[in-house]
Design goal:
The structure holds three protein chains of three kinds. Chain A starts with 14 loop residues before the first helix and ends with a helix. Chain A is 78% helix and 0% strand. Chain A is mainly alpha-helical. Chain B has a six-stranded mixed beta sheet, sandwiched between helices. A four-stranded antiparallel beta sheet of chain B has the order 2-1-4-5. Chain B is built from ten helices and ten strands. In chain B, strand 9 and strand 10 form a beta hairpin. Chain B is of the alpha/beta class. By secondary structure, chain C is mainly alpha-helical. Chain C has a single domain, classed as MetI-like (MetI-like fold), CATH 1.10.3720. Helices cover 77% and strands 0% of the residues of chain C. Chain C has eleven helices and no strands. In chain C, helix 8 runs antiparallel to helix 9. The chains are: A mainly alpha, B alpha/beta, C mainly alpha. At the B-C interface, helix 2, strand 6, helix 4 and helix 6 of B face helix 8 and helix 9 of C.
Chain lengths: 263, 267, 271
Amino acid sequence: MTARTWRRPPLIADARLRWGLSVAVVVYLLLAVSSLEVNWQRVLDGLERGADFARALITPDFTSRSEDILDGFLESLAMTFVSTAIGLLLAIPVAVGAARNLSPLPVYLLCRGFIAVSRSFQEIIIAILFVAMLGFGPLAGVATLAFASIGFIAKLLAEDIEAMDPRPLEAIRATGGSLAKTLHWGVMPIVLPRLVGVAMYRLDINFRESAIIGIVGAGGIGATLNTAFDRYEYDTAAAILLLIIVIVLASEYASGFIRGRLR
Amino acid sequence: MPVGLLRIEGLSKRYGRDALALDGVDLSLAAGEVIALIGPSGAGKSTLIRCINRLVEPSAGKVWLGDTDLTALDGRALRRARRRIGMIFQEFALVDRLTVMENLLSGRLGYVGFWRAALRRFPQADIERAFELLEQVELAGMEDRRADALSGGQRQRVGIARALMQTPDLLLVDEPTASLDPRTSRQIMRLITRLCGERGLPAVINIHDVPLARRFCRRIVGLRQGRIVYDGPSDGLDEGVLTAIYGEEEWDAPAESEVEAGDEAPV
Amino acid sequence: MPVYFDDGQPVWRRRSPRAVLLTWLGWFVAVAVLVTSWMFVSERTIWIFVTDAPSQGADLVSRMLPPDWAYTATLLRPLWDTINIATLGTLLALVFATPLAFLAARNTTPALPGVRAAALLIIVASRSINSLIWALLLVTIIGPGVLAGILAIALRSIGFIGKLLYEAIEESDHRPVEAIVASGASPGQMRLYAIAPQIAPAFAGISVYRWDINIREATILGLVGAGGIGLELIASVNVLAWGRVSMIFLLILATVLLSEWVSARVRAAVT
């Protein structure tokens, strides 16, 4: 008997598709890498600053600019709380509007469109527009984060509402219940328990985002951080970064704790 | 007692601060001997066979395979010793997303390097051996099926072939039939004992199903609360012995599995 | 007929008095925090500007319309850079995140003390800091450009991918692991044969998911000089060329929706 050989069956059975994809990937990578314009001299020069930053991480400076840092973090936190609260309140009507089982088609399309736009753009892009409209400062930041929160929360809630059992809804309608009654008895029991978890989740995201929208003038710790980097004050920047990490970790722990208690 | 191929001396195991799972077990296996290890759940059957290939670390005692003290080995030497010991599992323990052939070849991992394994470049002899074993366990032509596409009985036969790919000196079998229906269970037990017989391969088979143990193994070892309470021929398993192993029960009343196992259909 | 309860009959309540008190306390704290926060924000707001906001907004919209369609030609190269930043950054992150995940997972971390803690620390630090902040840092270190963007995306993604991947590893079935170890395989071979096949679908899904997010994030890295279409965006905003800005928005929207579609298709295919 001749020797039997075995090779692992390929992931993509169609040989032409397999080779086509492989070639396409290789060509893309070659093009992408070759189109990179990197000033290697500048990179090499920067390595020293990189070492400076690494040193600064070990010896962060919390004191020299302690007032700016404290002020920036307070502003970030204030923006986070206000924007999450506004976002939650406004997300509920948008979610109801974006649930196909409750809303007529025009309202549904409008709300879904709003959600899509709100989710597609980075917070910082929205922040640019709000700064142009409202001027520099934390209010533009609050508006930005609230706008992003509405889309985020409304999408999650709308999915919950659409996934709910249609029978109780029909039962309420059959008894001649108004829209308000439908919402109160049919929708709220589904939405409310989810709301706390979603709010904690979004609180966390809003804090992280509040740390960057200051770069375009929308308030928060981002402005302080940006200044520190601009002046190459790595020890202050390192202090801010470490504080961000600590606060993010603490809020993750807290939200895990609260969600665990609520279950 | 003759000096056996596998010798277990004073083997004990304690998990944390719990009671002893194994309490001074002595057991010896002659070349080519297939024994059934029976006992209630929690008696330590699974711990005992896992202490042999050190999937579980024994707390005290020695395990000899030929001239090697398995309990003294570490790292590379332990892996070399494990190559000599095949193992078959209760829930098959196949890698679901790999093909049947890859599952078989994983039995040769102890013999090839990392990169050969990563690139699936196993020696030609291993491939040929895998094809032969597939025929012996009646899975010829199934080499490129994914393991999760097989039935329970087929999966266990892949498990058997994987263990035999190691060309082991000893086979450890942990509840091979617990996840199978009665008919498939008998086929699997028959296959294991037949393959062991053909190779003169000694085996320790954990099995909770007494009729199956009785039928396929001449020597039975009964374990209760970590101690051996019976070690003798299968026809010596009378009511008194079973009570010693399992505790009080009406042994004459036909249990469900006994009825099904009692009249063997001509296959 | 009405039902009467005897005095001794237990009365059912939803919550214990203690829990009611705690709930009210929680609400009180929440409202207090909110009011304080709002006063803080309000104090720093020049409300005269805000009363002007609707007309400002209307003005902005009128300047944004119509989008500067001709500008698209100039945007193609930055768009290509943006996609490359996201893709190469994700690939780079995968190279580092995969071994990191094996070091961080309880069932595959080496026995050396401290390794798991170090791996988890790297993952947490990487995850907590937004890619834009990483870009801010990298631009000051290695200078502005696409490379800073790629590294920023990679630095942020390592933690994201590492976390999801190590969770997938910890959830993998231990039985095949036991079987492979019992055959005398080395620790490396065990990871390759018993764990890698189990986490392969999660690996593909996580990678594409993160790539999709990275496309989104790469569109803004230019704001701090780290390459891509964000460079054009901030330049247009600075010269108040709102027609160009709206064109960039449209392009970003199209790219993001496309990448989201690709990501959803791939994830549906692998699971």
